[in-house]
Amino acid sequence: MIQRIQTLFWILSFVFLLLLFPFSLATFKSMNGEFILYLNELTTAKGETIDGFSPSYIPAIFIGTLLFLDFICIFLFKNRRMQIRLSSLSILLHIIFIIYLFYYIDGVPVRINPPMEGYTIHFSYSLLFILVSMVMNVMAANFVKKDEDLIRSADRIR
């Protein structure tokens, strides 16, 4: 299990998804001040939580699902076809999550009570963790497919 390279890719994907929790997703600068968006809260630059913001738990649910899929793929080492399917599902969910996250971040200033006016959004580098996690899943799926092809070719020789 651990001796396979795709296991390391899934572990790295898992770690990069976990790193999304402590880091900010975006910073909003407006006439009202500077606000920092985390997965489930919006704070001021001083660290005070904004009371008029109702967070969406959908990003946390997406990340939880992706973490679960990575974890399951690690332990399905005897069922390579299922690993490929789950990895493909994970890649699709990563793409959907990225699209949703940009939509979510863009809608934050409107959901604050009172809404922000004249703001600029600065996306955080932590959003790259999602892309790195998706690349790790793609690489893991490719290596599982190579293993499966190698096993099939060995079966044909016998």
Helix content: 55-70%
Distance between the termini: 25 Å
What sequence of helices (H) and strands (E) makes up the elements? Answer: HEEEHHEH
Weakly predicted, low-confidence segments: none
Count of alpha and pi helical runs: 4
What is the alpha-carbon Rg in Å? 20 Å
Output the strand order for the largest sheet.
3-2-1-4
The counted number of beta strands is 4
Overall SS class: alpha+beta
Average pLDDT figure: 87
Largest sheet: 4 strands, antiparallel
Shape, principal axes of CA atoms = elongated
Provide the β-strand percentage band: 5-15%
Architecture overview:
With 158 residues, the protein is of the alpha+beta class. 59% of the residues lie in helices and 11% in strands. It has a four-stranded antiparallel sheet with strand order 3-2-1-4, with helices on one face. A hairpin with a 2-residue loop joins β1 and β2 (33-37). α1 runs antiparallel to α4 and α3 runs antiparallel to α4. The radius of gyration is 20 Å and the shape is elongated. The relative contact order is 0.21. The model has no long low-confidence stretch (mean pLDDT 87).
